[in-house]
Amino acid sequence: MPGYGQIDRDYAIKLATTAPADDGPVWMINLMCYKERAEYTDGRETTLSGRQADEVYTPVGPLAAVGAEIVFVADVEDQLIGDEPKWDRIAVVRYSTRASFIAMQEREDFQTVHEHKEAGMDQTIVIGGQPLGFPVAEQQVAWADVPHPPSEEDGAYTMLHVIRFHDEAGATVTPDHMKSYQEVAGSVAVPNGVRIDGWFSVEGTIIGDGRSWHQVRFNTFPSRRAFMTVALDPDRTHAHTEHRDTAIADTYALGLRPSVNTLAASVGEIGPPLSQVLSEMRRDERY
């Protein structure tokens, strides 16, 4: 058992035993909290920080060997919602199959470098996700034309939402209250340049703290100022209290500064145009 989290053995079995005909890509979403100083199990002295030890670990070779790709890396700038631990970094790896994830764990070159992850990581959550349909704006606003475009001082800013709903069907069916919130939030976020990089349905948490999750969402804004404009909008804040808080049982909301972001390309565009989604929601008497 690793020192940085609990393995979900049921999900591990699913990853290892999915029939080839039913297998396919899986996105492993990593939330990472580092030790201040790396601690090796053999007691060796080191000047490495936990983050530096994890950077030594980064298994680029083993990942490439099994056909996997790192599609997102970001430092956590703001932990807006969610208690301990305080997360330091987020990464997403796309594996071509679930079997390839298991195959990597069994590789000798991966096991050799894994000691550095064990030394540097205090806590981690690793979530297996499948792409979930999301609303797509028919005409996106160019970032150069938004009120708060990216600059050298304030560039792309990604909001990560890790969500567990009260409704246990929430992994595949977004609850009505959350849909109502999305209608309001989307109407404010689109003019401010939001881009949805990917929404994911959680199929399992291979390493964590025993909690279960339903969805993971990555929404990128042209700048932190653009996000804050949306966050402070009075209509959005009212909808947050009335609908989002009602729908969600547990969540992290993290503001990230990505250094690698090919997440959207790895997922592809999924879902109907945003205007169609909003129109259908308005016609539905529940809204």
What does this protein look like?
By secondary structure, the chain is an alpha+beta fold. The protein has 2 domains: 6-128, 2-Layer Sandwich (Alpha-Beta Plaits); 131-283, Alpha-Beta Plaits, CATH 3.30.70.100. 33% of the residues lie in helices and 30% in strands. It is built from 10 helices and 9 strands. It has helices spanning 9-17, 50-57, 60-65, 98-105, 108-120, 176-189, 224-231, 234-247, 263-267, 274-283, and strands spanning 6-7, 26-34, 69-81, 89-95, 121-132, 157-165, 195-208, 215-221, 248-261. The protein has an 8-stranded antiparallel barrel, surrounded by 6 helices. A hairpin with a 7-residue loop joins strand 3 and strand 4. Helix 1 (9-17) crosses helix 4 (98-105), helix 6 (176-189) runs antiparallel to helix 8 (234-247) and helix 6 packs across helix 10 (274-283). The radius of gyration is 19 Å and the shape is globular. The protein starts with 5 loop residues before the first strand and ends with a helix. 39% of the residues are buried. Mean pLDDT is 93; it is low at 271-287.
Please render the helix and strand layout as text.
Layout: E1 6-7, H1 9-17, E2 26-34, H2 50-57, H3 60-65, E3 69-81, E4 89-95, H4 98-105, H5 108-120, E5 121-132, E6 157-165, H6 176-189, E7 195-208, E8 215-221, H7 224-231, H8 234-247, E9 248-261, H9 263-267, H10 274-283
Antiparallel strand pairs: 1-7, 2-4, 2-5, 3-4, 3-9, 5-7, 6-8, 6-9, 7-8
